[in-house]
Amino acid sequence: MKIVIVGGGFGGVRTALALANKKNIEVKLISDQSYFEYHAALYRSATGRSPLEVAIPLSEFFSYAKNVEVIEDKIIKINEAEQRVIGQSTSTYGYDALVLATGNVTEYFGVKGLKEFAYGVKTIQEALKLKRHLHDQLLNAESERNYVVIGAGATGVELSAELTSYLKKIRQKHKIKHSFTVDLIEAGPRVLASMPKKFSSKVERRLKKLGVKTIFNTAVKAENVDDIQLPKGSIASHTVIWTAGVGNNSLFAENSKLFEFGKAGRAKVDQYLRTAPNIYVIGDSAVTKYTGMAQTALHDANFVASNLIRTSKGQSTSPYTPKRPI
Prior knowledge:
The protein contains nine helices and 20 strands.
């Protein structure tokens, strides 16, 4: 049984690991980069930590697996009729089962100037670019005074807290004495909206103690080279960090005839996480109850891998049951 997995994140890696060294199963794990990124901690690479903490070569996961081949390529087309996918390299990869675990990408929601001027922490490259910017600004005669983080989800909250202490540390090292602010802007009414209100309130108190100013019910209107525009007024800043928006991988839009879409462009799946008899969609790319969480991607991966193993043995498969992240 030939299985192609597209995506080297939590879902893709976990699926391949669960299929490693299984009889009668051949796995190709295809990713557009040669390493796994631990997205939840990428912000640390912008605030002094080593990139090695959050980037692991994919080959290291599968050195023991005789039936798993890791391929660096970007899949751009799915030919369902012929059961093959086509890479940017022009290579084609045939499959009996296709698992799409591509994760999400940054979405700017059409806000003018964000893509051009805002920094991000969704990839190693983005995090290191932000780190260089922070240090370059400190070496300038007019170093930054206002730092703005947009989006009070887990990444925005953790980044703003870490950024405050990191900036104090490196400013002290460079003997920069003038004050600075870290603003956390959220379009909704509180931080960590998916968590209980009691927990959000506790986090907000902690952020305030650390020196982070929270601004709620405020949707950013635009950004230019010198400031961020809000519904009422603006904040002068050359360091705006966008963590607020994600959308589905472009592979789905580019092959839109094969899918039905739900919120954020995610693919609708059946009770087996399929969009077609031989195509599975897992993790952030699928419309499921707890989509968007790393634990959900891992749960989805284990579920699909288990059913693929059953199929390879001629056994019946089980329907999907969502699992609430702990």
